[in-house]
Amino acid sequence: MKLMVDARYVRPVHDGISRYTSSLLHALYRGVTDGSLAGVRVAMLISDDEQLAQLPDLPHVRGFSPTGPLEPLSALAINRYRPDVLFSPMQTIGSWGRNYGLILTLHDLIYYDHPEAPGFLPGPVRWGWRQFHRTYVPQRILLNRADDVATVSHTTAGLIARHRLTRRPVHVIPNAPPEGSIIDRSTALARIPGRGKSLVYMGSAMPYKGVDLLIRSMTDLPDYELHLLSRFDPRRREELERMVPDGARVVFHDGVSDEEYRHLLATCTALVSASSAEGYGLPVVEAAAEGAPRILSDIPIFREVAPGAVHLNFRRPGALRQAVRDLEEPGEFKRQVLSALRDAERDSWETSARALVSLAHTVRGRRGRSARFSPPPTAGGPVRERPGRRT
């Protein structure tokens, strides 16, 4: 089977969809290399050679920019490479005239309730984003172009069904902790004495994320520091800085490296998130893999991916303070560390890669076609193999 994965959303600094794509591709690469995914040939669709720095040593082809004017014609270019199935981590790839199986992904329905577009998108795209999320009709049109639809959690799958967003089968291919990041029980327990009085938040500062609730709660915890790790829009950062209560300790990191992130998770009291909506909540499982307790808003997705965490209503006065003070009791802290490790082991990228390959086989079999994967020197040039590189 010839499986093509749309890697055009991979960014130099990962966001959720970028990390999802890259992690799945690395797991596919390991499976193809070690033979556990025998009979599968994987190629990547990119739009910028800089994306290759985040990706494994798999064949790749060039496609149109996913936010450019030629995106609606993507299928006509992809047809030349004759994949059996194309998997896209988004649902917007052009599909008109396609001759291959198509799996589209919908990560969440957050923007129907919170229609503000990500700030890194071009102005016209942000305007189209807002219009798109005024009604479910465009989403239904997009998803029904696929053979099958993927999503990252059972919570989101339930929402897709509730709103009748597609007639296609919906499958869960979840996120997971970074490969090899789950520490063992003895290491997790040995870290406990070295954990300081710090709370860590990783994620955007969009209003539904509840960063303002975290900041205001710090007035009850003057002996703790809140570390906001992500890079925020300058205007939003200024707005949040003005919210910091007198005497509260809030550190704006403006972005951290993966190494810094893991160090902060390994030495903090807890990861915190007051978000009111998520598709999966990748930082939650990243924290769990480091044995960090998690204090989270009480929403269905966090109950799904982190059943062992502390769940609370951040709008209730004193809620965060009480949760943090409870963790100061050694027995409770140890219990939360061990619960984090159990939650981290629920999903893996290898399992998700196998689920994707199984789904691709199903789509291919249903379509009843078997295409060669020998591209001509057009539509982006031949598939290129890179020299071996450690990944």
Could you explain the architecture of this structure?
By secondary structure, the protein is of the alpha/beta class. The protein is built from 15 helices and 13 strands. It has helices spanning 16-34, 74-78, 110-113, 123-132, 137-143, 154-162, 185-191, 211-217, 234-243, 258-267, 282-289, 300-305, 319-327, 330-344, 349-367, and strands spanning 2-6, 41-46, 60-62, 85-87, 101-105, 148-151, 170-172, 198-201, 225-228, 249-252, 270-273, 294-297, 310-312. The chain has a seven-stranded parallel beta sheet. The chain has a six-stranded parallel beta sheet with strand order 10-9-8-11-12-13, sandwiched between helices. Helix 12 links the parallel strand 12 (294-297) and strand 13 (310-312). Helix 1 packs across helix 15 and helix 11 crosses helix 14. The longest helix has 19 residues, at 16-34. The chain is globular. It starts with a strand and ends in a 24-residue tail after the last helix.
